[in-house]
Amino acid sequence: MVSSRDVERARSGGREVLDDLNSISRAREGARDPALGSLLGDIGRRRARQSARLQAWLSRHEEALPEAGKGIPGGHDSARAGAVSDERPATAEKGVTVTECREVAPGLIIFRVPRPLDFSFRPGQSVKVGVEGVKRSFSIVSAPHEPTLEFFVELVPGGQMSERLRTLAPGHTIILGNPKGSFLLDSRYREHLMVATVTGINPFVSMIRDALHQGRGDHRFHLLHGASYQNEFGYREELQGIAASHPEILDYVPTVSRPEEPANSGWTASQGRVDAIIEDYVARKGLDASSTMLYICGHSGMIGSVEQQFRPRGFQIETEDYD
């Protein structure tokens, strides 16, 4: 027969496992060697499964012992009765719960989930997200040190995933795959020229947040962000704030391609397609192929246009196509 002391031992063991997961997660985030990062990830997943088994055992036995309390404090099941919790789960094996979902503009949403303790990634990477059986890859906006995973997504009319995301709300469960991708910051360069359309800003926000967190003052980011309408810049306020307080790190230029339309009334900043303003920007800033890495993320037409302008000049270019 299970005693209250057994339950307390299980809860104490669960707390130790969660502490280990936090330590492993921090160590993996700081690992420079990919082999070490992979090894720490495997260890974290094993510890996460242990945590899940402990929580399952507690769920079965603590109902009969109400005086023992409920769940592992800080664990993935500590929020009950359908409440939405932003506490970090040990693992994403059974999915994660949406804690926030908001519309930025028609057809554009931002949603967040708590980052599982065994989920580690590098700035610029993406993850396959599953909603009601449909899976799509989305770039992660968050930086690796943040406790949430944040996504900025464009909804495509009639798209299978988009139609599911239209009704996404706090409390819904999504599935996460493993983070992947090689669209990463190249630290060999000091100058980083980043060109994006609408949600193509996602990996760049992650990289900039991470650089600020790491105190990387030896890198300078030039971020050109294009959209049709001024309400489509999901992170304009944040990026303008960073540029104002850290001008030595970030120069942010949002530009609208349809300045004459009523929806852009009052817009006084840059105008024109982002691939049309980059030439002048590079000349004004004196950027060249020897010191500057060029990253392009967004619609394929924009990517092709920028590549055509700068590959012949010898610029090293990384691209991420969002079509």
Short description:
The chain has helices at residues 4-30, 34-61, 160-165, 202-214, 236-245, 274-285, 300-310, and strands spanning 96-97, 100-105, 108-114, 126-131, 134-139, 148-154, 173-176, 191-197, 220-227, 250-256, 270-271, 292-298, 316-321.
How many separate helices?
7
Instruction: Tell me the series of helices and strands, N- to C-terminal.
Output: HHEEEEEEHEEHEHEEHEHE
Shape: globular
CATH superfamily of the largest domain: Nucleotide-binding domain of ferredoxin-NADP reductase (FNR) module
What is the topology, as strand order, of the major beta sheet?
Answer: 11-10-9-8-12-13
Low-confidence stretches: 66-83
Mind explaining what this structure looks like?
33% of the residues lie in helices and 23% in strands. It is α/β, with parallel strands linked by helices. It folds into three domains: 4-68; 96-176, Elongation Factor Tu (Ef-tu), domain 3 (Beta Barrel), CATH 2.40.30; 191-321, Rossmann fold (3-Layer(aba) Sandwich), CATH 3.40.50.80. The protein is globular. Residues 66-83 have low confidence and may be disordered.
